[in-house]
Amino acid sequence: MSSDSTQRANCCQQIRTNPKFQLLVKERAQLAWSLTLLVLGLYFLYMIVVAAIPSVLHTPLQEGGHLTWGIPIAATIIVFSWLMTGLYVRRANTRFDQLSQSVLEETRV
Amino acid sequence: MRLLISGLLGMMFSLSTMAAPITAAEQQPLNLHAIAMFFLFVLGTLVITWWAARQTHSTADFYTAGGGISGFQNGLAIAGDYMSAATLLGLSSMVFAKGYDGFVYTIGFFVGWPLITFLMAERLRNLGRFTFADIVSYRLDQTKIRTFAALGSLTVVCCYLIVQMVGAGQLIKLLFGLDYSIAVMVVGLLMLVYVLFGGMIATTWVQIIKAVLLLAGGTTLALMALSRFDFSLENLAVKAVEAHKIGWDIMGPGSMLDNPINVASMSLGLLFGIAGLPHILMRFFTVPNAKEARKSVFYATGFIGFFFLVVMILGFTSIVIVGTDPQFFVGGNTQGALIGGGNMVAMHLAKAVGGNLFLGFLSAVAFATILAVVSGLALAGASAISHDLYAKVIKKGQATEQQEMRVTRVATVGLGIVAILLGILFEKMNVAFLVGLTFGVAASTNFPVLIMAMYWKDLTTRGALWGGFAGLVSALVLVVLSPAVWVTVLGHEKAIFPYDHPALFSMPLAFAVIILVSKLDRSRQAELERSAYDDQFVRAQTGLGAAAAVNH
Known about the structure:
By secondary structure, chain A is an all-alpha fold.
C-alpha cells in the first residue's frame, strides 16, 4: 500500500514537471475560461439590454414588418453558445487529449 | 435538470400573474388514446428493464451502468433529464401568455449548459466514480465530507421528488382522467421497478427513449403548427400580434423590470443549480472516459437548445391557434381562462393541429417524462445512502459489494415509499417553494463545495463544511421567509424576504464562508489536504487513475 502510494506520488511529480503537461494546463485553462467569459458575458449583456433598453429588441427587422430583432438575437444566443461548446469539445478531444496521452506515455512507472 | 410541471409553473406564477395554480386542476374524462400509448411505453421500458437486470451484476453496473454508456447516448439522457414536462408545458405556456418574455426565461434555462462543458464535465469524469461526493471527498475528510454531501444530495432529491410526484398526480388527473393518488402510486411503483431491477442501465434507457419521443413529438407538433402559417415567421408574427391581448408588446421584452432582483436570483439559481443536482452529476460517471463525457454535454446542449427553439415556436403558434379557438376556453370565452389551467397550452395545440390521437401521444410522453425524472432522482438518492453513507461512512469502505447492493435496494424501496407518501401528503399544497428550495440548495450547497474542491487548492474540510452549511441554512431560511412559504403556506400578511429564489444571497454567502474558513484553517489536517491538491490536479487534467469502463 505505502509503496503503491509512493509510486503514485512519484508519477504525479514526474507529470507535473513535464513541460507538455504545463502546456496542456495552460492551454486548457485559457480556452475554458475565455469561452466561459464569452458565453456568460453575452448572456449578461443580453439581460442588461432586456432590462435597460428593451426597445432595441423590439425594433422590427424591416420597416413595417412584424418580426423584431429580439427573435433572431435570442435564437443566435442559443445556437452560438452551443457552437462554442462544440469548439471546446473538439479542441479538448483532439489537441488536449493528445497532449495528455503523450504526457502519460512519457511517465515512467 | 428536471423541472416538474407544477414546479416550473409555480416558479412562473410567482414571477407573473399567469393563471390559476395547477392544484385547481379538474379531473377530466378518461383519455383512452393517452392511456393506450402510455401502456405501450411502459411495456417497452419493462422489457428494457428485464434486459438491463440481466446485465446488472456489480455496484458499478447499478450506479453508473458500468461506465459503458456512449457520449451520444448519455447526451440524449442528459437532455432528457433537462427537457421535462415542465419545459414543454411551462415554457410554451409562458410564451403563450407573455410573448417575448418567455424567450428571455428560456435563454436563462439554457446558458448553464455551455458552462458545465467548459468547466466541469471532464473533471467530474476524471475525479468521480459513483457520486459527486467522491470528488468533494477526494482529498478531504471522508467521513465528515461524505456525510455532508449525502445530506445535500438527499435534501435536493427529496424536495425534487415531492415536486415531481405532486406534478405527476396533477398532470395525470388532467390528461388521463385518473385519480390523483392512483397516479402517484403508478409513478412510484414503476419507478421502483426500473431502479430496483435495472439500475442505471434501465434508468438511462428509459430516459433516452423518452428524450427521443419528446424531441420527435415536439418537432412534429411545431411543424404541423407552422404549416398553418405557410412556414413563414413573419406571417406568424403578424397573426400573433393581431390575436394577443397585449398585441404588439409580445414582440419585445416587457415586464422583466417589475422585479429584476427576483429574476437575477432565479437565473443564478438555475445557472448554477444545474451543476449541483445529484442526478445530473451522476450522468457524467456513466461514460467510459473524459472524452465521452465532453461529447455527451455537447450533444445534450444541442438537443436542449433545439428543443427550446421548438418550444418557443409552440408558444407563439399557440397564441393564434389556441388563443382564438373558443373550444379551449372555459365557457367558450377567449378572453377568459383556458380549460385545464394556464399550463395546458401545448396540449391544446396538439389537439388543435393533430386531433385526439396526437393529444394522446403527447400526454403519454408527458407522463413518461415524469417517470424518467423520478427514476433518476431515486437512483441518485439511493446511491447517496448506500455508497456514501453506508459503504464509506458507516463501514469505512469495508463493505462487500453484496452488502452495498442490498443497502441500495432497501434505500430505493424506502425512497419509493417516501415519495408516494409525500406525494399524497402534499396534494393540496402549492409546492412552488420546493422548486426554489431545490435549486437554492443545489446552487448554494452542492455547487460551491464541488467547484471549490475541483478548482481551489486551499480548500479544507473545515471550510467546505462551514461554507456548505452556511449555504444550506441560509437557503432554507430565506425560502421559509419568502412569499411562497411565509405568505402562501403560513398565511402571513407580508413576506420578510421579498424574493422567491435565495441563490443571489445564499450562494455568495456560501463561497465567502468557504474561502474565509479555509484561509483561517491552520490545522495539520488542512496542510495535508492542501498538499494533496497537486496529485488531484494531475488526475483531473489527465485522467491518470480514473475508473475505467466495464465491458458489457
